[in-house]
Design brief:
Mean pLDDT: 88
Helix content: 25-40%
Largest sheet: 10 strands, parallel
Number of domains: 1
CATH architecture: Alpha-Beta Barrel
CATH class: Alpha Beta
Strand content: 5-15%
Length: 344
């Protein structure tokens, strides 16, 4: 899908957009279900990266203390609690630049994954940059999906992060897909970007081959001490427009209403579900930010007639379309011309 198509979809009258996204949602997701996911930080703080929104960067004074990688037994306790509370996907995040095979921390992560995968939940990890060998080992250990957000548009990305490039993000995503893992990949609204950047980000996501299995749409939760601490809260209608446009552009993905949900009213969340969101992070904490309480979420789902989606730990990654380019690419005009994505 091209930027021009996304621009036309996004900017149509609000209720026309919702009507279109709802029709797409009902075609591909006819059950009234929402996936409940739990996110656990297994290694918090002390990250060498300089992502301008992140309280875990060692470069900023945010009050987040660096912690060592959690023991497998402690992670298992949290995973069992998540399963008992209704979560069907357990996501584990580590604050570091990336992982490398043969290191103690990567071997420990693999042990954690092997153990969590015995619980019958989908297993997702977000560990930073990932090479080909590391991706293969994570898949073999039992990882269902790899999360690696692209955050914003290729053009705006250097304004947010300087310690790695947008192409580095795409390389990790390609390695995860080539290893047979599903990719959970989305972005963050409220990083000082414009609507154009949001749609260019979505253009990149929509042209992944295969498209992401799940797409988190986050609203920045401005953290004190980070370069983006003074950014304004994202308007709920802007969030819902983006969710609706994402549903239309990537119809088979789970669209996850993610960070920033704590700042949304019940009514705004209901509109987001109507527009095409069908996954949430469940539990009162994300990596370092707050989240609605589990009992509040279950009450909202009951009021809306929505039920938790069942677990699918053996879920296969989306199929590659071999008639299209294999690698995710930066959707600048030059890149579109060179790779042929403009012909998709």
């Amino acid at each position: 899908m091209t930027y021009a198509e996304l621009h036309r979809i996004y900017h149509q009258p609000f209720f026309d957009l919702l009507k279109q996204s709802r029709a797409v949602h009902e075609e591909h997701w006819p059950e009234n279900e929402v996936q409940l996911c739990t996110l656990l930080s297994i290694k918090t703080g002390g990250c060498s990266e300089d992502c301008g929104y992140c309280a875990q960067s060692a470069r900023y004074s945010t009050g987040v203390q660096a912690e060592k990688l959690m023991d497998t037994a402690d992670v298992m306790e949290r995973a069992r609690m998540a399963k008992a509370s209704g979560s069907t996907r357990f996501c584990m995040g580590a604050a570091w630049k990336g992982v490398r095979q043969g290191t103690q921390k990567f071997d420990q992560v693999l042990d954690i994954v092997r153990n969590v995968s015995t619980l019958g939940m989908e297993v997702c990890v977000t560990l930073g940059e990932l090479g080909e060998e590391e991706a293969q080992q994570l898949k073999s250990a039992g990882v269902t999906a790899y999360n690696h957000n692209i955050d914003t548009s290729p053009d705006h990305y250097p304004n947010i992060v300087s310690s790695h490039t947008f192409d580095d993000r795409l390389r990790t995503i390609r390695n995860a897909q080539d290893a047979g893992m599903s990719v959970c990949c989305g972005g963050i609204l409220g990083l000082g970007e414009g609507i154009e950047d949001r749609l260019k980000m979505l253009e990149v996501l929509a042209n992944f081959n295969p498209q992401p299995e799940s797409v988190p749409i986050n609203a920045l939760m401005a953290m004190k001490g980070t370069p983006l601490e003074d950014e304004k809260m994202v308007d709920s209608f802007a969030m819902i427009r983006m969710i609706a446009t994402t549903r239309i552009a990537i119809p088979r993905a789970k669209v996850r209403l993610s960070a920033g949900r704590l700042q949304m009213s019940r009514e705004a969340q209901a509109l987001a579900f109507f527009a095409g969101a069908n996954s949430i992070f469940y539990g009162d904490k994300l990596l370092t930010a707050g989240n609605p309480r589990a009992n509040e979420d279950m009450a909202l789902l009951r009021d809306l007639g929505l039920t938790p989606q069942g677990s699918n730990p053996d879920m296969a990654a989306p199929d590659v379309d071999y008639s299209k380019p294999m690698s995710p690419c930066v959707m600048t005009e030059e890149a579109v011309h060179s790779c042929g994505c403009g012909d998709l």
